[in-house]
Write a structure and sequence with these properties.
This protein is α+β, with helices and mostly antiparallel strands and 497 residues long. The chain is built from 15 helices and nine strands. Helix 3 packs parallel to helix 4, helix 5 runs antiparallel to helix 6 and helix 12 runs antiparallel to helix 15.
């Protein structure tokens, strides 16, 4: 007998024993009843013979009823049961046998079983649901095994919606759907979507970090739009993953070790992607470079996101972006004073010209430290002749810089020497701007804050590049002081170790 057959047999045994007991009890009662007393003469042999036949027939009916019940079947055609009580019990056993046989067929997983019991319509319905369940389960497993390309947040959401529809079809296919298994599938699918989304999000993030600051408006730059959207999508899917893992825990069904480790790792990286999202928002701040005091507030915020970043590569990218920020935050040069000293008297720069005997001829003074000015007029072109101004002319000694122009020259030279932005480099730059004379240091700081910034000029004869710096937004000393204070609060951003 197979294992599946043993189940209905075990269930039938108590019923058969009860049937046997009931019939035998009746037989005993009838056989035990005394015959009517005979008043006269010897016992009636005919009546005694009839009683024996009747008793044997009952005994046969009991045996046949017991055999049929114990074998969980209806009596065969050769098993003629005449006693009404035995026949009723045999028929009840037969009906129960049909139900148990239907159960055995259903549990066996046969493809097209023929059900005969009183629950045959229900079993047929369950059988059809089982077929749907197998189909739905196959669709879920196929989705989990297929490659997935979740390139952005909407694509990831669409992929999960398609999977959730498959799981919903599985849950409604049959009352025998395994809810705990469906919850496990949900976690596995979320992990798969998150891993694909992470892989797709890395490239836009790296590309954006290579853009100049501040970052372009995401409404007009698709790369920035994708880079900003991906971390938000990752963060949302991590939140949903946490809820799905908790749901599995509620089913008392443990997550497979591989899946548990993957979910835990994604949860940790979710914090990092949230930090990246905040970092990109900081890099897109429109006042990033225009506000002279921005560094004091901005760098500590970047440090907070840096501390949440686990990847060594990502941390190095942030450090490089901070270097880029410092390079753009501090003007590369300072324009000279609007006035010059002509024979020790302040004269508007625009009124002074330098005359050469060579092809250079007559040139106006520039306020750019890399073009013709009071520091290089005697050597920039060949054959210097003289300096002219309204109402006069003079030689080399007639033209000198103002104190403000000396500050601009010192800053520009010291700024060009900065190759890496560190707290020490900024302090050295500040010292060069202040100069060695403590008595004029405060005045030099104030003068530096009045000078417009400028871009570097490599060729004095080439057109001057456009510059965003003005007298109002440059505030060079204010920038250096804010940067120095911010670096002290975020040293890890400048430590390459």
């Amino acid at each position: 007998m197979s294992r599946s057959s043993a189940v209905p047999v075990a269930l039938a045994v108590p019923f058969a024993l009860y049937a046997l007991w009931a019939v035998q009890a009746g037989v005993r009662a009838e056989l035990a009843a005394p015959s009517a007393p005979i008043e006269k003469g010897a016992p009636d042999e005919k009546k005694q013979a009839e009683a024996r036949v009747r008793a044997e027939k009952w005994a046969r009916d009991v045996r046949q009823t017991s055999v049929a019940a114990l074998q969980v079947r209806a009596p065969g055609p050769e098993e003629k049961i005449e006693d009404a009580d035995c026949l009723a019990l045999a028929r009840a056993a037969a009906a129960r046998a049909a139900d148990l046989t239907d159960l055995e067929k259903f549990l066996s997983g046969a493809e097209r079983p023929a059900y005969t019991g009183k629950l045959k319509e229900r079993y047929a319905e369950w059988q059809a649901g089982r077929a749907k369940l197998v189909t739905a389960e196959g669709a879920v497993e196929a989705w989990l095994k297929a490659p997935l390309a979740a390139t952005d947040g909407p694509a990831a959401a669409g992929a999960m919606k398609a999977f959730e529809d498959l799981v919903a079809a599985y849950r409604t296919a049959s009352p025998f759907a395994d809810g705990s298994r469906a919850a496990l599938w949900q976690v596995e699918a979320r992990v798969k979507v998150l891993e694909a989304l992470e892989a797709a999000a890395q490239r836009p993030f790296d590309d954006v970090l290579a853009l100049p600051l501040p970052l372009p408006d995401p409404k007009v730059n698709k790369t920035v739009e994708r880079a900003l959207g991906a971390p938000a999508a990752v963060r949302e899917h991590v939140r949903l993953l946490d809820a799905e893992v908790a749901k599995v825990a509620g089913t008392k069904r443990p997550l497979p070790e591989r899946l548990a480790k993957a979910a835990a790792a994604l949860a940790r990286r979710g914090d990092e992607w949230a930090a990246r999202e905040q970092l990109l928002a900081l890099l897109a701040d429109p006042e990033l470079l225009t506000d002279p005091g921005k560094a004091a507030d901005w760098l500590p915020k970047v440090r907070a996101q840096f501390d949440k970043t686990q990847s060594a590569d990502a941390r190095e990218l942030i450090r490089r972006k901070v270097q880029q920020y410092c390079e753009a935050f501090v003007p590369r040069a300072a324009r000279l004073d609007a006035s010059v000293l002509v024979r020790d008297k302040e004269t508007p720069r625009v009124n002074v010209k330098v005359v050469y005997a060579s092809d250079a001829k007559t040139q106006p003074l520039s306020d750019h430290p890399g073009r013709l000015n009071e520091f290089n007029f005697a050597t920039l072109h060949r054959d210097f002749d003289q300096v002219t101004w309204p109402g006069g002319f003079g030689g080399r000694d007639a033209l000198k810089p103002t104190p403000a122009s000396l500050v601009a020259r010192d800053f520009t030279a010291a700024r060009a020497a900065v190759t890496a932005w560190t707290p020490a480099a900024v302090e050295e730059l500040k010292k060069k701007c202040e100069g060695p004379d403590a008595g004029v240091q405060q005045r030099r700081r104030e003068q530096l804050d009045t000078l417009p910034g400028a871009e570097l000029v490599r060729d004095p004869a080439a057109p001057e590049p456009a510059s965003p710096w003005t007298r109002e937004n440059a505030k060079i000393w204010t920038r250096l002081a804010a940067l120095s204070a911010a670096m002290a609060k975020a040293p890890a951003l400048f430590d390459a170790k």
